[in-house]
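Case study 2.
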Amino acid sequence: MMRTDRTSAAAAVADSGMDRDATNARLGRNVVSSVAAKVLYLATRFSLPPIILAHITLEEYGIWALAFILVAYLGMGAFGVSNVYVRYVAEYQASGQTHRIGDLLSTGLVLVSTFATLTLIALWFILPTLLTWFSVPADLEATAFVLLFGTVAVFMLDLSLGAFVYVLAGLQKIVLQNRIWIASFLLETLLVVTFLLMGLGVLGLLYAFALRYVLSISLSVWMCWRNLPGLRLSPRRFNREHLRICLRFGGVLQLSGLLGMFLRSVEKLVAGLFINVQAVGLFDVAQKFPVMATSIPSSINAAYLPAVTQLHAQGRAQEFCDFYLGGARQINLLTGFMMGFMAAFSAPLFTAWLGPQPGFELAPLILACFTLPFQLNVVTGAATNVYRGMAQPLRELLYPVSQLLLVVVLVGSGFGLFGVEIGVIVAGVAAAMIASALLYFAASNRFLGIRQRLFLRRVLLPGLLPYLSGFGLMLLMNPWIASAADDRLGSLAVVLAGGLAYVTLQSALLWFLQLTASEKSFLRSRLAPLAGPIAVLRWRSPRSC
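Prediction:
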């Protein structure tokens, strides 16, 4: 009897190890695919602004940026439901209840489609008032109406039928999901250039945006049916059980998402309301580099959510701590590597990108000030994934609520003391983002039973070292930087030389000072066959809390 028990226990341990290895392997593939797709996407986004600004005015570009602020807020109307898809599809698959996916998807489609229809009707009537609030010039009001309403209409279509994209994510078919995404944004990039050369102006951006989502939705629907051949959808499968899930679990995420979306664009909204629409365009262009940079590690967060949910569904909650520390460390090291250079070389980087553009004098300062806030913001996603995977989304509200309060206090006080200035908005919002992120980390560590010093040493401090490297190199190269201040080619030479020196220096510091012996061993095994830096993202999570 005792021998049988020992055999069963040994088998259970072996099965657990196999499950962990399979989970890590799948997670590694998903992370690598997500990061590679994101890098390619950012390459296209990086190349577009100079082309776009050569064919449209800064005011038109500001309206286009305003359209996506509006889209982002309205998109939050179904943010909770989209996260319900990912989490519960992953849970149903892990527990062998794939037949329930049809009920969940049918309920969500009815709910979100109703919301999208009502939103478009309301927007038709309130959009003229919004254009007045944001001081859109009279000669651009007609174009702005078409641009904003058309963009929202396309996005509402994707918000409803885009449910199939989230089903693929929940099934952990993230590699397939990324292939569809790559095809769609490459099509959009090609069409943007084509339509601008045809003289369609800013409306050409809308047409390209629409055709991108037609392709994305079509491919996602097709692939969902291929991967779930028994999937059945019907309005009659709308049911109270999944409606409650959407309203309870999704409702909390909805509130968190709305607050988060507001806070991710609060500086643009404040600038638009208190200054003008041109200030909105300034913030959008100035933040392009840090926003694009954080979108790479944010794809790691997206890959972690279904994996953490699977652990919870299988009763493997003891591994949450590993995933939290491992995910946070990977994201912070990767993001810090990019942000350290951007913060130090913001001036030549911006000049090399767009040239000495009039009206953009404050852009390098804005870029530099938001690197660390955006870095800490994306690292908070590791804790958020744990809360969502454990179906405890209320805990994540601490981050956006505390940040909102700090923004109101700091920006409001700054306006009272120094007046309505762009610099006041930058300083107040950046400080609020940093302070709220640190508070969220402390609370999450306490909840998971992780020592604050351990988190500081293992996760936070390693991501700050690149700033020392970047600013050290900047000081050494400062005479060259100053001599090339208004020279686009000279600034490009500074960026290339400084970037090469920075990557060499920071890579050496990362290898010799920051990586553990196990991380180095893992890197060697992955880099040997792959011979590429993307393999870095497949590090194993730290085992000890």
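The chain is about 80% helix and 0% strand.
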